[in-house]
Design a protein that fits this description.
The chain is built from 26 helices and 23 strands. By secondary structure, it is α+β, with helices and mostly antiparallel strands. Among the domains are: about 5-135, Arc Repressor Mutant, subunit A; about 335-420, no CATH class; about 430-485, no CATH class; about 580-655, SH3 type barrels (Roll), CATH 2.30.30. The radius of gyration is 34 Å and the shape is elongated. This is Helicase XPB/Ssl2 N-terminal domain-containing protein.
């Protein structure tokens, strides 16, 4: 983290005019001759004064505290990163003004690289002031389980094989698919739940949206099923949660979901409910330290998906990440039960082979605790064609049933497989190597080759191409270059290789939520103190003999919290020069506008019948000098609406200092 010396060096790099404008607000007029390092030491001494620190903290409002807290947790951020986090609450111009105001108040500073940091002199107090305190409350024990489970995922994959084009062009679910889904998945059947299942599998890379249909990636499903139970469950939840990043590629969305799940598992208790909004903000700030995509909106969308699926509970603004009912599973060794009638029963705790066979080669008849499937000729044949025939089907079936396979079923399946093998139309890639590398292919790549078409000419399926190229490069051979006419699953390859960050949130603290009868917000002492300070300043200001322009400028500085002690209210902190023009003084109004457009350091307060509300604070854009009748084009603040009006018709135009850091 930056040191006090780093902050001091940043102040030393300021040009003289903004430097002395800044110093004047806090220490009053600087006497010459001056020595910048000595002045900065005086500023440090001013900030170390307990009363100064107390007033600075008391005047921080909730919005300012949120920005300061984010900068503290992120360890420093540039403007673009910060604005991505807060853009839902501010226009860019308003947010920039807020950042400049915090700089002028010496709460934050910006280094030469453009990164914002909290002032190290105030850091300890600011950490205490901005610490997120999250209310918690006990939740009753769960009586049910989440409806979207890994077991349902297997059944859904089987269902999808028969309904590979489930949606209309509008994206709405087809009536026939909806009806079948409701019949086959009792208690789970509605459009939102169907889409949740579908999207989760896309983010896991297990199915692929080809535009007109969805297809299963068998290799990716095998990889998922073969993961150890606890790791697989985390991956499953990551795919579910990834919907908060639906505009991102599936692999990036999955990575984000994985990070959120690990953050929740590592930093929350399954026995407690946490205030939803503070928890979202805290996770967002922590995770955004290295990844700009973790905005509160996206995390909130991820929470909504967890709530819909049953892995998070919500009650009166509190949420509990309730995974305990599903995180401990029975040993996954149970065989699939296959009847001579081709009926299949898949019990809880089914083995990996049983789940894989049911998902790819069986037709779902009913999803339940013990799900019912059947091996049906047309479904089986279509599955062979879409999922590929390189799987050892008899071997997989033998393993799934632990050898208890009816002979009539084995013979029938063999006959169906022979029918499919009469002709095959496959999409893939032809790879050709020079004769001296044939032995390398046979030794290192035999498991990836489907067919040898001729000596040195090989056929590789799409799902094997990416591993082939990766291994080829790892062995040090020349890069094969671009592959043409390839339908690949590059997005899915390696999706589970992502290693998530496991963020610690050391600043999280909790308080027990009040009983239901205790309603209403408690007004913080800081708010009371803020009001007391501002009343004190206004009362002192009213007692001073000032010109109208001096009074207005000091009022503006008090409103912007640049002056925090009565002793700072002095004409010496006001700028010299004309800052306001009224009525028929056309040339003075024009000079003020030209000055603001030239230096871009000020805004303008304008009163004119051409402005919708009669007066406005504006950010000037351009001056059109029509002969004898010039016009100003400006943004009306805070809405930033562009507006043009005649300068002659303005009854008052006044400079208003925006920031010495602009």
């Amino acid at each position: 983290m930056p040191s006090v010396d780093d902050w001091k060096r940043t102040l030393l790099t300021l040009e003289d005019e903004p430097f002395f404008e800044l110093i004047k607000n806090h220490l009053g007029k600087v006497q010459t001759p001056y020595h910048k390092p000595s002045i900065i030491n005086s500023i440090e001494k001013f900030l170390l004064n307990p009363e100064t620190r107390s007033r600075i903290l008391a005047l921080l409002n909730d919005d300012e505290s949120a920005v300061t807290a984010f900068i503290l947790r992120s360890g420093g951020s540039d403007f673009d990163h910060l604005y991505r986090y807060f853009h839902d609450s501010y226009s860019e111009l308003r947010f920039k003004s807020l950042m400049e105001n915090l700089q002028e108040r010496l709460i934050i500073y910006r280094d030469e690289s453009g990164f914002y940091f909290v002032n190290p002199v105030l850091e300890e107090e600011l950490e205490q002031r901005t610490e997120e305190t999250i209310s918690v409350k006990a939740f009753p024990e769960r009586t049910g389980e989440a409806w979207f489970t890994e077991e349902m995922m297997i059944a859904f994959l089987s269902f999808l094989q028969d309904n590979s084009s489930p949606c209309k062009q509008s994206g709405e679910l087809k009536k026939s698919v909806r009806s079948s889904f409701i019949d086959l998945f009792p208690g789970s059947g509605d459009d939102a739940r169907f889409m949740l299942c579908l999207e989760s599998l896309v983010y896991l890379g297990i199915i692929h949206d080809r535009g007109d249909r969805f297809s299963v990636y068998p290799e990716q499903l095998k990889k998922f099923i073969s993961l150890p139970g606890k790791e697989r469950f985390t991956v499953f939840l990551a795919g579910l949660t990834a919907g908060g990043w639906r505009e991102s590629p599936p692999r990036r969305a999955f990575a984000a979901g994985h990070t959120i799940i690990n953050a929740l598992r590592k930093n929350t208790s399954g026995h407690l409910g946490y205030e939803r909004e503070p928890l979202i903000k805290l996770l967002s700030a922590e995770l955004s330290r290295e990844d700009q995509r973790f905005t509160p909106k996206r995390i909130s969308q991820s929470f909504d998906r967890l709530i819909m699926a049953g892995y998070m509970e919500e009650d009166d603004g509190f949420v509990r990440f309730a995974v305990s009912a599903n995180s401990t599973k029975a040993a996954e060794t149970m065989p699939m039960i296959l009847q001579p009638s081709f009926e299949v029963l898949l019990p809880p705790g089914a083995s990996a082979a049983a789940r894989l066979f049911a998902a790819l080669y069986c037709r779902l008849k009913r999803y339940d605790r013990v799900s019912h499937f059947e091996i049906e000729q047309q479904h089986f044949i279509e599955s062979l064609r879409t999922c590929g025939e390189d799987t050892d089907i008899p071997g997989l079936l033998e393993e799934a049933c632990e050898g208890k396979t009816p002979q009539n079923v084995v013979i029938t399946l063999q006959g169906w497989m022979e029918r499919v093998q009469q002709i095959e139309i496959a999409t893939g890639t032809v790879i050709k190597v020079v004769p001296e590398l044939v032995t390398v292919i046979q030794k290192e790549f035999s498991s990836m080759i489907l067919l040898t078409l001729a000596p040195g000419v090989y056929f590789v399926r799409p799902e094997k191409l990416s591993p082939f190229i990766t291994k080829w490069r790892a062995l040090g051979y020349s890069d094969p270059g671009e592959v043409r006419n390839l339908l690949s699953q590059a997005d899915a390859e390696g999706i589970f290789d992502y290693t998530p960050r496991l963020p610690d949130i050391p600043s999280i603290s909790t308080r027990t939520a009040p009983e239901p009868e205790e309603t209403g917000k408690i007004v913080m002492d800081a708010d009371k103190e803020s009001r007391r300070i501002q009343k004190e300043l206004i009362a002192h200001l009213n007692s001073l003999e000032l010109t109208q322009e001096q009074r207005r400028e000091l009022e503006a500085k008090v409103a912007r919290k640049l002056l925090i002690f009565p002793r700072q209210l002095s004409p010496e902190v006001c700028r010299i020069g004309r800052i306001e023009a009224r009525g028929i003084d056309f040339h003075a109004k024009l000079r003020i506008i030209e000055d603001v457009l030239d230096n871009r350091e000020d805004l303008l307060e304008i009163e004119s019948p051409e402005i919708p509300d009669g007066s406005a604070l504006v950010y000037p854009l351009s001056l059109t000098k029509d002969p004898g009748d010039p016009s100003l084009t400006a943004l009306l603040l805070p809405e930033e609406i562009e507006h043009t009006f005649k300068i002659r018709r303005a009854s008052r135009i006044r400079k208003r200092r925006r920031s010495v850091f602009y």
